[in-house]
Amino acid sequence: MGCLSKLKTLNISGNMIESLPKSIENCRSLEDINANFNKLTKLPDTIGFELVNLKKLSVNSNKIALLPYSLSSMTTLRILDARLNCLRSLPEGLENLISLEILNVSQNFQYLQTLPYSIGLLISLTELDVSYNKITTLPDSIGCLKRLQKLSVEGNPLVYPRVEIMEQKLDTIKEYLSERMNRSPKTPTKNKLWLTKFTKWASFNGRGSSNMPRDEMRESFIMAPEYRSTDGFSTPKNTSTGMFSPRRIFSPRHYFSK
């Protein structure tokens, strides 16, 4: 498969496939992968470092528990469909997906319980479907998604925001979350870097420049670890997480830590 250097569309849906070969990373012209309705439990660890032209990734109706961290390097990705899996969390570095328009992680049922705060930095997001999971709290940062036109949260045991808020129009919900983020004294004290990024990209409180060139956005957002090429493959140069590494500083896990 790795020899198919000009392949743009791969449809392997509706089979009994349990894994994808690592050689798929050599298909660097791929723009669309449809691997729905299989038995995948994971994706190749470094797939995101290599398939830099991918625009659509559909892996719904599988058994995937975790999406690889390298996925955050897919800055051209527009559609990510990972519903009906066993997802326990979304990958760190989610904010790097600056072209992502549609994110569907619905129907992971009892497995998906939280959303990362970085979801508010998906500057191109228009549709977000997190329905039928175990999510109890929506992050205030969702109020920063200026382009969001559709939000689906039904089927979750939501405690926050309250039911009467979620029954309002989307614009009202976003305004409520944005105001809560603005009023909360914990936001800047726990992680001032988050607030700085929301403000810089005009996703928070209407400040900043929303007409930033795409290349400049990419340079500022990408925080993936460096990697070196070996025999046609890219592997992480340093997978450790240092005290002051960008991966640690901007990690949603670090944001919520006490």
UniProtKB/TrEMBL annotation:
Residue ranges annotated as transmembrane are: none
Know the name of this protein?
A: Uncharacterized protein
Alphabetized, the UniProt keywords read:
Leucine-rich repeat, Repeat
Q: Does the keyword Cell cycle apply?
A: no
Q: Report the PROSITE patterns cross-referenced here.
A: LRR
Entry-linked Pfam families: LRR_1, LRR_8
Tell me the superkingdom of the source: Eukaryota
Task: Tell me which GO cellular component terms the UniProt record holds.
Answer: cytoplasm
